[in-house]
Specification:
seven-stranded mixed beta sheet
Amino acid sequence: MRMVFSGAAQEVTGSCFLVEADGVRFLVDCGMFQGGPDARARNLDAWKFDPACIDFVLLTHAHVDHCGLLPRLSALGFRGPVYTTTATADLLPVMLLDSAFIQETEWMREHGRTRRHQRRAPQRSGPAPLYTVAQARDCLEQVRGVAYDVDVRPHPHVRCRFRDAGHILGSAIIEVWVTEEGKTTKIVFSGDLGQPGRPIVRDPVQIESADVLVIESTYGNRLHRSHQDTIEEMVSVVHDTMARRRGNIIIPAFALGRTQEILWLLADLCRQGRLPRLRVIVDSPMAARATDITWKHTAFLDDETRELLSMRRAFPHWLDLHFTRSVEESMALKRIKSGAIIISASGMCDAGRIKHHLSNNIGRPESAIVIVGYQAEGTLGRKLVDGQKRVRIFGEEHRVRARVHTIGGLSAHADKAALLGWVDGFARPPAQTFVVHGEAATALGFAQTLSARPGWHAVAPAAGTAVEL
């Protein structure tokens, strides 16, 4: 049996792991590479295997760096099922159709084409989009939703179980038992682990045993600010920007997970009287749909969130909350000069409507940009976090005069202490541990941290590495 680390190996995006055993080949995740000028080229040539030879896919959750290349895999010949949790299965149409729309739109913008022209002659102006909306719809037919904590047999030699990872709605740790020549090996894929004690989703499930562990390390080299300090910082930023400076707050946020958590936090702070009633605009049709799905799956939410929803489902007494539904509504937001919190995607500022709101506010010292999630290397969001004073948006240079706040305590990823706390739950160290989904220095450092523990042997494989299990 062997495993190939096709993505998220000494980097954060592009999660994709190929497992090959006697008579079976399957993937865990099939994510898109994000950030940097070569991301598109890498997505076009993401794999060294034939998609038609893959028997099935196991999917940890619905963020595009874990699921975003599924339509391309299908378009290039994959015909098997995609197994994931029921909540993720509900979210995938939102995420993949939106991603496909972006692929088509950016391709048409690059080649100066209209949709009608594209339908008439899709190949005349260069290579086709990464995938199309039609291909994403076809791929969705292959998705199979399964319940948490229930054994699934996608193949006679494979048994698997999805456990709550506490990262976003529907996120999963996947336990996989693979039998080869009469011997069964248990592989555990952590997926993206959540930070314990956070609102909206439940805490990650503890796993007690594994022969092989594949663990994320996004924040494996640092600690998040405490939840209380995070709340205090958010309150300070809102008061300073809205009351004293009279500007806007722009929050780039992933449509799935981060947007819902920010809404919960703001509503709760208003309910407590820590903040006045706020004008909050969510400018992301995808986030609106993801929020509706989140409220639908209340069984997967934590007790605190269910209590808040039971008191005031839509927050009308606490938030003046509006979800934009049209391009015209989105464009009209540029006329708002003060008093609004605008939440929009993408979370790393590299695509979508957030770029328009940044271009309208980044040069205004009275406004603030609040970064609440991980920013991959090469993205516009990372440049802002790193303190660049000038950035390019839509090809135009902007001077960064708005104040940039990084509120790291809102991350949905476990920090170093939480990751170590989770691995402490194993009754004994796995025989092999592979550290993934972290920038090179972070992944290598976290592997060293694990290896310093008695009985642990961890490595951080590079992209394309194949290992025998």
